[in-house]
Amino acid sequence: MTDPFDILRDRLVAAAHATSPPPRLARPRRRILIVLVAALLVSSSAAAAVVSLTGEDSQPLTGKVGGKPGAGPSDAREYVIEMLPSLSVGEAGWCATLALRHSNGQPIAGGEGCGPAPPAAAPQIVSGALVATTSRSGKSVSYIVVDDRVASVRVDGGRMIIPRPSAAIPSGWKAAVWFTAGGAAPAMPVLLDKAGQVISTEPNQRAGTRAAGTRRLATRAVDPARAPHQRCAIEVPSRAGLRAASERVVTETPAHEPDVNGRAFRACAGAVIYLAGRRFTAAVLVDARNPSHQAAALPGQRPHPGAPGIVEAGGGITARRAGPGWLVVRGINPAQRLRLLHALKTGA
């Protein structure tokens, strides 16, 4: 790998795999640095007064943040924010990762959180922050991904951040990234439309519910070496150094077409696999609304430089098409991800 942020990303993925899954909603624990990554489900009043939309442009999803050198978290110089589909089997949702490292390349902190795909009426997709809680000389990094209805985001002290599109997030959505002084958690962002009116986030409360059709579907365990011959199943061959620890497949369909904002994905099969002692997650992702439709491009998708038909995507993912969906592999080592992707089969 030649991109230094790939190394930081891989370390973040490894750390996430070494711990228990994060909560669906942010429940911060007090530490020197804490992470908040989740869809915010706090509604805003839609009757707020019109305000000016002049403001500052969003920071990029990958960049540098200032701080006082030699002061621990405040020496955070570089950050990277990535978005990816949830790989939890049966769920239609999104995840996001945020990581910081020193200017000398040493990782400082990072985290990941996931939440259900929001309904079409919900303007907010996912948000989070990496917060320097004990040093005002340090900088906290916050972000929010929103749809095209949001023209600006009001944050701490009345600052107005103008969200911008990015190739790292799905088409039609935008991200606002901003820095604040450490010492306290950032205030809840407020979303504003082009007229300066507050956009209610109350529709986000339907995310992940039966009414929205995005609750987690029922699954069953299967033998990865003898997986069902169906599109949403992963066959793991018996090879030296390759061991499948578990696999689950979805056993039901939503009662009605799910209500989702944009082109969300649902993981209809997933497996935990070890290759040369390293842990990887494999999943089949399909279109959340209609699994028979071709699934959208993955966030941050780009062609693999040495493997035709293979793509790399945000969050440490290597993938290829499997019928109308995607077969994806996530893990710390890109070369091993590619090797594993070539070895796996689906019924598509």
Secondary structure blueprint with pairings:
Elements: H1 4-17, E1 33-38, E2 56-57, E3 62-64, E4 76-85, E5 93-102, E6 107-116, E7 124-132, E8 139-147, E9 152-154, E10 160-162, E11 173-181, E12 190-192, E13 219-221, E14 234-235, E15 242-250, E16 265-275, E17 278-287, E18 302-303, E19 311-313, E20 317-322, E21 325-330, H2 334-343, E22 345-346
Parallel strand pairs: 2-10
Antiparallel strand pairs: 1-7, 3-4, 4-5, 5-6, 7-8, 8-11, 9-10, 9-12, 13-15, 14-22, 15-16, 16-17, 17-21, 18-19, 19-20, 20-21
What does this structure look like?
The chain is mostly beta strands. The protein folds into two domains: 4-206, no CATH class; 219-252 and 263-346, no CATH class. 7% of the residues lie in helices and 38% in strands. It is built from two helices and 22 strands. It has helices at 4-17, 334-343; strands at residues 33-38, 56-57, 62-64, 76-85, 93-102, 107-116, 124-132, 139-147, 152-154, 160-162, 173-181, 190-192, 219-221, 234-235, 242-250, 265-275, 278-287, 302-303, 311-313, 317-322, 325-330, 345-346. The chain has an eight-stranded antiparallel beta sheet. Strands 1-7-8-11 form a four-stranded antiparallel beta sheet, with no helix packed on it. It has a four-stranded mixed beta sheet with strand order 2-10-9-12, with no helix packed on it. A hairpin with a 7-residue loop joins strand 18 and strand 19 (311-313). The two termini are 31 Å apart. Residues 1-9, 11-52 and 69-74 have low confidence and may be disordered.
